[in-house]
Structures are given as structure tokens and as C-alpha cells.
Predict the structure.
Amino acid sequence: MFQKILIANRGEIACRVITTARKMGIKTVAVYSDADARAPFVAMADEAVHIGPSPAAESYLIADKIIAACKQTGAEAVHPGYGFLSERTSFAEALAKENIAFIGPPVGAIAAMGDKIESKKLAKEAGVNVVPGFVGEIEDTEHAVRISTEIGYPVMMKASAGGGGKGMRLAYNEADVREGFESVKREGLNSFGDDRVFIEKFILNPRHIEIQILGDQHGNILYLNERECSIQRRHQKVVEEAPSPFVTPKMRKAMGEQCVALSRAVGYYSAGTVELIVSGADPTGESFYFLEMNTRLQVEHPVTEAITGIDLVEQMIRVAAGEKLAMTQDDIGIDGWAIENRVYAEDPYRGFLPSTGRLVHYSPPLPGWQEDETVAGKARRGVARGNGSVRVDDGVYEGGEVSRFYDPMIAKLITWAPTRDEAADLQIEALDNFRIKGLGHNVDFLSAIMQHPRFRSGELTTGFIAEEYPEGFHGAATSDEVKRLLAAACAGNEFTWASRARRISGQLDGDDGREGVLRVTTEWLVKLGDERFTVTLGDGHAMVDGVRVEGTCDWRPGMVQATATDGTGQSYGLIVERIGNQWKVTTRGAAHTALVLPLRLARHESLMLEKVPPDLSRLLICPMPGMLVKLHVAEGETVQPGQPLATVEAMKMENILRAEKEGVIAKINAAEGESLAVDAVILELE
């Protein structure tokens, strides 16, 4: 077994690998850029080596620097994590030349599966179902249009070397192909150094299901069940679960055996994932097709660990050291249900725009990944909670920064329980207690998905988010019962706040029996969003618009997190902020702003008027920090609604900004290639 390994990655996956290596008694080496000098993974490792400036192209993507760090520290092997150099054949070859083990698959398998065009040919030869499409190089836009017409719309255009949702465009007609083909080529070239594109048929009601593969260097290859990854945004996974609510035992076996056959055809060993697209319109479950094979550890691997009890990182290390797998296919079972939500630095209330900056406050529901042998006798599930468990994989810290140089992931939240509904309920509870401040995040959105009736039914497709939130996200739906509970809680908070203020100032009734003139009222008017509630506080209950609300709230002045419990014993985690004279309370996937006034002031409507925001419709405002890649218009040009105005690149993805109304370009304030701050004015309309 190795004595020391180097992790050629950063963030949560570096922390994840270090945790398992430490458990195995293996020393670890971290490499870090300028931006990551104070990151948790650097502190966790036994040794750390600085490898360059913040941009990945000048640090994490330079193989020579990684190899030099191995030589400097005596590391015998490298775990690449995911992304960066994890699927670069040149990196694995360079390590081999230096007699440094690569904790991953053989070079031949990486090469075979790394090219989406060639991998489809190999899959077809191995007897794996493939999606109808054009397998070959596409010359130009006109060629792309001809191919798409022959295949039949809708079609998907993909960068051959793409991954992580980058370099992909869906086209419903010729106009979409003409508009998107060159953009796909640019994203492929900018992100992966390869501008080749292929086109394939888009499957109706598609579900994204993947099979986890694990093999050793002695010819043993297993499939560790499936993961459902259908809930995606811009082809980037948001929610993953294992097993899939759609897959039957017969379907699982057919998928698994085909994926093992493909893996065997390329001499695969280590952990890997075969991604499949499945037609949800086919009730037989037989319409599944090969998409690609990821020759590395997946972001969503924890859900597989949770239902199988197998530590995939440990197995990767053991396989790289030449050990045989200690289990057979018959040993692979399914125990319970696991769900993973990706907590991203993006603002769902502003169209999911990337949000970089400092984590002023960061408090996950549980402190990092821990093992608990008490939960069904299985490890890798996190900390016990009721009948299940909660696990948080992260690599950030309070006061740290989510940098524009890397992926915007903050953390992964994994829950396990005996049933799917219980695992989803645990997600809601944990998300209620996830406190992030300083930048936008998607915690509310994730909670909304977990509560959504369609998610609960298991009727998922890759279009779930677009179909269920066509006008964007504005907070989870809130029931009348929860609104009344929140109104009572906010009135109680105001009562406590006012009582404390008056006690400090000496204006409140004392304990000596004297009657004061400034007694704090128990009757309040609460404006919660656009709704008004009359609240009368009692002992252990409140009357809200004449409805008795039982429950408690443990909030006290200075607390930013609290718990409210209703009369049935259902608890709600609250994130509480005092902003001016209002309360902002976040729970169950929605942020509520409450203005609380003594009921006797209710007639003074002017106290409850809202400021009217300024009209910004004539301005094109940059919605995120990024670089202006292209201006599509010039001053004096007349534009129509929906017409592209500018393309901004952020987090290595291009975002096309379009005209919201007809008008004439009066002034352009930015130039192509310029770095823009959020809310920077790109151009103005007359």
C-alpha cells in the first residue's frame, strides 16, 4: 500500500480524498494556488506545496508542477479528483514515466472514453445502445444545419471533449443551430482546447441515469447500481439520488451488464461512471442509450456510497496499489435511499446568476463528513439523525472566498434514510439549517425541489427545472398554516425585541409592581410579503386572524438561527435577520420579509408603503461578474425583443443577454474583452 499520496485537486473533493487516506493511514500532500492558500484542504493535508497563481491554467492544470510536487515530497501516487487533470491521458502518461502511480483508470481507457465521438463508436461495437446521431467531425455551421435536418429536431449539439455541462446547446430548429453552433465550438475550445462538435437526437422526456462501475487490475468489474441525475440546470446536475425511482431490477441488470461490457472492452479498472439517457416516455424502461463514460470519480459518488456501504475513494486507492476487489457482484445490494443536493454560489432569485465573493457567514447543518457506525451498521453516511443520517462534503470556510477562478460549488448535502420520502424530508430539515451569507446561494431552491409534488412522485426528466420554473424561481410555495406560524413567530420576535429595548432603556414595567406607561403590546399587525395578519400573542399560542396557532419559537435577541415548532410537533429551522425595522425569516425554501407594527398603528397605512424601484428597462445591466466576450449590436442600431445584445462569459460558460423590448441603441459603455462587475451597465437604449 502507498505510504504517501498527492491530491491534484482542490476544495471539497481534496478534503474528501484526504479524509479517506487518513483513515487508511496514508499521508497526504495538497497542492494549492494563490487563491487557495488558506483553504481547509491545505490545512488538512500532512504537507502542502504551492503551485502557482489563481487561474487553473497557471496552477492546477500544469502537469509539470504536480509532478515536481510529487518529487519534492516523495508522494508515490496521485489522486486527481474530478475536473482539472483527472481525464487527461497526457497527465497519466507523464506520471507513469516518473514511476508515480495514477489513482484512476489505465491511459488506454481514458483515451478511448475521453473523445465523445470515438467513445460512441466503441460503445456500439461493445453492444451498448447508442443515441441516433452523426458520429464524425462537422465542418461548419451549414454542415451542422444539414446534419440536424437529417436527424430530425430537436437535436443536441455537444463539444466532443466537453463535460460538466459546458459546450452543449439544444436546438429545436434551424435558427437555433445557426445561433448556437459557433458558441458550442468556442466553449469547447476555451474550456477543453478542442472545438470539435457532434450532434445527436434529443430524447423525449429524457431521464439522466448513470451506472457506477468499479474494477480492479485483475479483470474483475462490477456495477454498483445506478444514480438518478435528471434534475439539471443548463446540463449541470443539481440533485442526484440512488437508487432511481424509475429503474426496475430488470432494467438495472440490463444497464449494468451493458456498462460492464463496455468497461471490459476498454480494459477498465478503478472507479468510473457510464452515463445513460433514458426515455421516460417508454414505460418498458428499455429505451436507454449510452451518453459518455466519465473515467474518474463523480461529484455525486456519495449517494452510491450511502446505499452500498462502499467507500469508493478507498477502493480507487486499493485498486491503484494492485489489490483485488474484496467483493463480487452478488455482494452489491441496495440499502435504503440517498439524495445529494449541490449547494452552489448562484442566485436563483436572479436567474441563477453566478455569485462570487466572501462567505461572511457559513454554517452548514453538520460540521463536515463524519462516519457513524450506528446508522444501520453502515459507514460513509454522515451523522445520525432520526432514522437516517446527514452528511456534508465541503471545502470552504467562514471568511473565505468563493473565487471566480473555479467551480461555484460551496458544498454537497447528502442524506440517507430507509425510504425516499424520509431522505427528502431530511434534506428539507438540513437545508433549513444551512446558513450562508455574503453571496447568493441556491439553498432555498433546493428545498423547493425537495418539497415539489412532482419530485416526490418521482416523475423526473432533465427538463424538470425549465418546466416547473419557467418564469424563474421566486421562493417555494408556502402554505397558509406556515404563513400563520411565521406571522406568530415574527410578532413574538418583535415583542421580545421591543421588551428588551425598553428594559434596557428603563421604560418597561419593573418587578416592583409599579405600572409603567410603555407596556409592550401583545396585539400586532404583521405584513408578511403582500399579506397582512392580525396577531394576538398568548401563553404558548397565538391567535392569527382568529385562528389559534399552537407552538413555540426559541428565538432570542442576537440569534441568527432558531427553531419554530407547531402544534403537531413539526419543527422549522429559521434563519432570522433584523434588517432596519423589518424581519427577514427564511425557512422551507422561501425568504419572508415581515414588517411588524402594534395593532393600534394599523390605520397608518403610510407606514407600510413600499418604495417603488427605479425603471431600469432601458439599460442592459451585467447580471454577474464576467468578461464581455461579444457585442452583437452597435450604437444607433434598432433592436427587437429577444435579439442578442451581448455575450458574457462567467464560470467558463457563455451567457447571451437579450433585448427585453424594442428600441434603439443609444450608447455602448463596455468593450469586448473587458471584465465587468455585477450590475455594470453594458449599453443604454434611447
Remarks:
- The chain has six domains: 4-103, 132-201, 208-335, 336-475, 480-608, 619-685.
- Residues 140 and 181 are 8 Å apart (CA to CA).
